[in-house]
Amino acid sequence: MVMFWVSVLAISILLYVLLDGVDLGVGLLFGLANSEAKRGGMLSAVAPIWDGNETWLVVTAVILWGAFPVVFATLLSALYLPVIAMLLGLILRGVAFEFRYKTHRLRWIWDFSFAGGSLIATFMQGLMVGALVEGLQFTNGEYSGGEVGWLTPFAVLCGIGLCLGYALLGACWLAKKCDADVREVAHRQIPVLAVGVLAFLVLVFAYALAEHLPILHRWIDRPYLFVFPAIGSVAATVLAFSILRHNDHWPFYMVALIFVSAFGTLAFSFWPYMIPFAITIDEAASPRSSLEFMFWGCGVVVFPLMLLYTVISYSVFRGKVRAASGYEHH
Amino acid sequence: MDMTALLLSRIQFAFTITFHIIFPSFTIGLAAWLTILEALHLGTGRPAYRVIFEFWLKIFGVAFGMGVVSGIVMAFQLGTNWSVLSRMSGPIQGPLLMYETFTAFMLEATFFGVLIFGRSRVPPWFYFFSTAMVALGTTFSAFWIMVNNSWMQVPSGYVLEKGVFVPNDWSKILFNSVVWSRFPHMLLASYLTGAFCVAATGAWYMLRRVYHAESRIMLRMGLGLAAVLMPIQLFFGHLNGIYVNTYQPSKMAAIEGRWNDEKPGSEVLFAWPDVKNRRNLFAIALPPPFGSLIDSDSLTAAETGLNSIPPENWPPVVIPFFAFRIMVGCGLVMLGLAWLGSYLSFRHRLAYIRPLLWLTFLSFPLPFIAIITGWFTAEVGRQPWVVFGVLRTAEAMTPFLTAREATISLAIFCSVYAFIFLFGTFYIYRLIRTGPARQPFEVSHIVVPNRPMSLADEEPIQVPSPVGARE
User: Fold this and answer.
1) ipTM score of the complex?
2) pLDDT in tens, A126-135
3) What pLDDT sits at residue B333?
4) How many structural domains are present in chain B?
């Protein structure tokens, strides 16, 4: 039962990162777009999916609370300010998306909120992952790192890294979904961002070597973990070729694969800890009566339906967004 | 434990949840109203019903979106500010919230999509069915939330093991008399909110002499529904009083401003509770046994006073005392308006009595005020407990939270919410002022189920058609 909920949690987090990573990334690039036509095109590439994507964050949160309440309570309270800032970013981003089409005069406010909200949310997510990897300070199972225990150079580096990563994911999505200007710009951005992400990974690795992060020891103990970076580097190679060929579709899938391998790397390096080196999965799990109550309704019925719904909505939304046709009804 | 951080966290929770409840209570009511309209349209074929339906569907979309956005914060906040509570009660409250989230998702993902994608693609009965399912979905959402909150009011079906609430009887948690008097009370409150907003809109159009047919329907149906529902609501309110009196005597004593044990009890109608000296100033009271009659359905029952409860277990008396009276006051004004308005509307005279139209128009805040003050009564009255009788609010807070962190987050929430709320409210106001479009409404662009607010866009967003659907 615990394993079931760990898997559901892992799927939800991974889906969140991949799916919302796309529209947060588009939000980041949105700040760089210099014309209304481009901005409109970029928004249309994520309009039907952003809210559904964000749902996975809420799903992740409620699974954590119901199935692993200790982790929910510990993480959110230890990362107080980053969590609040992330929520603020997500609220601004979401509302801006809806409200910008309801006004002309004040549109710039919502455009600013959209890009700014995406930036804050992404940076905070990266920061939090970085802080977790580096290890928060715990005394007797309770967080004792203080107000800004999460604020370290490594965490900031991860925040910037995730911004680059999401932006790359977003650019690949734009190349895949859009045409004309937006696609051209995306194709110019992809190589720059890809190099940036690569540089980030090298930096992280160097930092880890220099600081002897606890994670590194796990790698020496578990050589099979190298399978994930191997997948990642294959994906990176294919990505490089597809960039050279100006392919619209391959970059997206390859970047997604790189994200999956990074996620796998992290998840399996932490195993069996949920909060690295402080709380294990079994320690964190809810009592059996709770897990079973969730299993028979949400677990076996609704969760598969949600996955199915996600697949259907993406297949309905396949193909290129037609940039000019949206206004034909006016 | 930082007492300032505790106070700020409580203010933050109160602020964000007060902001949030406005939208769900409105949309639960609107969903039910939309279902009635669609049934009438299906039954009579009158086009006016459809025009009104489409008008309110747009408003539903915006309010629903605002509710979703403001709701996300709630779940996270329990972890950030109330980590002890969320760790201890996670095994019970977590699964309940999960059911709520998943129910909401199913509603949003499936049937709401049908409502938005338009009538042209599905048979009329299925369109009606989808409307009813959306209403059912919002009802389920409310159900899970009420179960969750009722567990905090009167915890049951659990054992406390190693500092964690372990559920051992889910049927007790889901099906107990507390849930089943509070859930209908909230549901009816939402229906009344919908009814009064509809009636007020009808009155507004009538005062402006626009949308004659639609405004008559809105006014008559809104007031009529309220006239029927209001007495039922008073009855469920009374049932709630019985549960409070049985399980939470400290809350009841605060609501009633009752200091000494009385047998039978008197009933304070109005007073200024002087907490320091444990007495009521300027009291206007009904003599015994009215208090026992109202609180216990009995002429002789003994009623507990605050003096026989240790002061460290008292709620802040003044807030539940006044919040309760404001709620009841709003309810009685709504009852009067609904009955008088319905009677006059039945006699076809309402349209000529402009002062009453003005009153109806201006009555739309009443149900919101009643809901908010009702929740203040329930939640502040539960203090100093977060889980009544078991876990104190002060002990539920994140132990290492500082006043500085709490100040920053509260400031952020207040400013962002104020900004969003102003714009959202202004937008709903603009939609209502413009009024229903006369020609049957066709979605001129592809709106997607996950973006309820896009229904009301002025300018379409460009997205590709679903395969084979249009062109």
Assistant:
1) 0.89
2) 999 999 888 8
3) 95
4) 2
